[in-house]
Amino acid sequence: MADIQEKIAKLFPDATFEQGDTLLVNIPDEKWHNLARTLRDDADLSFDFLVTIVGMDWKETLGCIYYLTSTRNNAKISVKVTTADRSNPMLHSISDLWAIAGIFEREVYDYFGIVFIGNPDMRRLFLSIDWKGYPLRKDYDESPETNPVPTDNERQSDYTDTYVELEDGKVEKRETRVFEADDFVVNIGPQHPATHGVLRFRTAVDGETIKKIDVYMGYIHRGIEKICEKLTYPQTLHFMDRLDYFSAHPYHHCLCMTIEQAAGIEISRRAQVIRVLMDELSRIASHCLFMGTFCMDLGATTMLFYTLRVREQILDIMEKTCGARMTFNYECIGGVMQDLHPDFVSDVKALLAVIPKNIKEYNQIFTGNIIAKNRMEGVGVLSREDAISWAVTGPSGRASGWACDVRKTDPYSIYGELEFDEVIRHEGDSMARFKVRLDEITQSARIIEQLIDNIPDGEYCVKVPKVLKLPVGHWFRKVEGCRGTFGIFLESDGATSPYRLKIVPPSLPAAAVVDHITSGNKIADLITIGGSLDYIVPDMDR
Amino acid sequence: MPYEAWKDNEYIESLVKELQANGTNVIVGTFDKLINWGRSNSLWPLTFATSCCGIEFVSLGAARYDMARFGWEVARSSPRQADFIMVAGTIVHRMAPVLRRLYDQLAEPKYVIACGACAVSGGPFKKSYHVVMGVDKIIPVDVYLPGCPPRPEAMIYSIMQLSRKIKVERFFGGVNRQEKQEEFLKAHPIEGVDD
């Protein structure tokens, strides 16, 4: 880490450094693009994976924190860029270096009003173009009168703004078309059975071939990040259930770990084992549902009934212990809410006994089917470089040959002690994405097998103060959700509620990459590709 | 299910009383009964899900809870072929005009179930800047179903309540002329949408 700091200090004398959980570089905005290019292209640094861009409002200044990771040596770095201009804030875009930055910057613009110079598409992401104000700013007027429930169809525009820096340093706003003038644009969604929720694709087609897709989000944007700033830490937890409702346990786990790390709470071994067991059970349930709905999209409705059989069995186990079928709110700060149900061990063993049989059955019904093969093999190929540039993590990234499993790269909780393989395939097509998930079920079952007979005794929840205050600082933690890398950025100013809680969902890059993968494919393949990426809309919209 | 086991019999009784107040034509009344018997036993839902509740709706369609037992399994993707819309999930500002449009596209007579805490009142997102606090602000609701998300059993109960309501309605000169609904829509206008 010291060499990186030395190297950057030599090249960029303006940079200042802070050491937190990662190295934080402060850099003036003018130098930022050059630094970003160095960080990405320098052979020693090669920070090629942009994890997230956290927009921030520090009251006097606005700015962003960029989290970067190197996929080669797993080094991490964060960069802070600020601007003091609150009325007309501008920063330089890095969307030419990392493909995913385009969408991340649009999100920051939507929340904070920071304009990115050089981003080709500076529209709002989640809110409508007539929305007044920027909701995550601290001085945002939240009264319902400012932004009433619309009584009108949303105003649509074919144009987008681009801010270009001229030779003399002035910034000019230009209007460009989203599609070309004579493109034939088909609207898909938001109410469409194959978009898995309320997502909208404006699809420019040439005959049956897709030319470009404009992904339109925000049909389920609930403003969770802003609500969290008004709630105490224990109260923020339950929103994690409602993001990606299949990854309720891993997401809870992530936020609990972040808060526990910040507060310096050490949890018992028993609680850790229970958390990992729940994470892996929900991974199996999630992948089962993925297969069911994905096969249903491709026309194999029967699969849904077979896969939901296993899922229901898991939900029964969860229900006995957590008391709910879906939004469990089970992990809490300090451990878990209740102890395991007495039947837990026997129920899980019964589940483990049926899983291999079920997987065999799925393969017989679907995987070898000639129609399934024709529709999936070679469709929607995503190369490893593109997967990294678009930050497509999770099973979809691993299907492109990118070893991005957080359980392996940054083992958290007790994952470091467990024996399991990271499932990686190299084809990068829809079939690979399907098979990775199928194989991950086996690996999750393997993890559960190792733990189920040695759940240690002890308390399931340690004592934590009734009123929890975190020290001043910021933390960033990642876990492997069912759909990819899920991260929480937490900034505290010492109060009982977070100053900023940024959620880093895996589904946002998965939806953003749809345009890149589908262009040139047939419109019928959009369903296959979208289904195989397995995005959850409430997760990307938050 | 025995009559006493239902939760809100007063509502159904008041509906029946309202119908009996003016008396019923023997012939029309008999036809009403016949048509309502058919309508209430083959309710077709619209596949409409925005979030968590939608997944429980999928479970409802699968083998374990099997809504086909009741004649509701024909989930349609087009509102023009559906009888009722189960608003399963949060409705936000951007979605509100879309939901209203879907409602307008449903074939008459049409019904709405507000499924889950978000659709009933905004639920856990009460403090949000972008969530519609209850779908009854945009469309008329027939059955409110609380829960976050409601269990599939609760969903079955809510659709049964709806079919009970349909059974006692007067079809001729009643629900096929939706006056109350028109009043509601006039009181909650959405420009650019043709009601």
Shape of chain A: globular
Oligomeric assembly? heterodimer
Order of helices and strands of chain B: HHEHEHEHEHHH
CATH domain topology of chain B = Rossmann fold
CATH top level label of chain B: Alpha Beta
Report the uncertain regions of chain A: none
CATH-assigned homologous superfamily of the largest domain in chain A: Cytochrome-c3 Hydrogenase, chain B
Number of strands of chain B: 4
By DSSP, the count of extended strands of chain A is 17
Overall number of structural domains of chain B: 1
Total of helices of chain A: 18
Query: Any guess at the CATH architecture of the largest domain in chain A?
Result: Orthogonal Bundle
Task: Give the domain tally of chain A.
Answer: 2
Q: How much strand of chain A?
A: 15-25%
Largest interface: A-B, 48 and 45 residues
Helical amount of chain B: 40-55%
The share of residues in helices of chain A is: 25-40%
Largest sheet of chain B: 4 strands, parallel
Task: Write structural notes for this entry.
The complex is a heterodimer of chains A (542) and B (195). With 542 residues, chain A is of the alpha+beta class. Chain A folds into two domains: 2-142 and 163-176, Beta Polymerase, domain 2, CATH 3.30.460.80; 224-379 and 451-541, Cytochrome-c3 Hydrogenase, chain B. Chain A is built from 18 helices and 17 strands. Chain A is globular and about 70 Å long. Chain A starts with a helix and ends with a helix. The model of chain A has no long low-confidence stretch (mean pLDDT 87). Chain B is α/β, with parallel strands linked by helices. Chain B has a single domain (9-187), classed as Rossmann fold (3-Layer(aba) Sandwich), CATH 3.40.50.12280. Helix content of chain B is 43%, strand content 8%. Chain B is built from eight helices and four strands, in the order ααβαβαβαβααα. In chain B, strands 1-2-3-4 form a four-stranded parallel beta sheet. In chain B, helix 4 (96-105) links the parallel strand 2 (84-88) and strand 3. The longest helix of chain B has 16 residues, at 26-41. Chain B starts with 8 loop residues before the first helix and ends in an 8-residue tail after the last helix. The model of chain B has no long low-confidence stretch (mean pLDDT 80). The interface between A and B is large, with 48 and 45 residues.
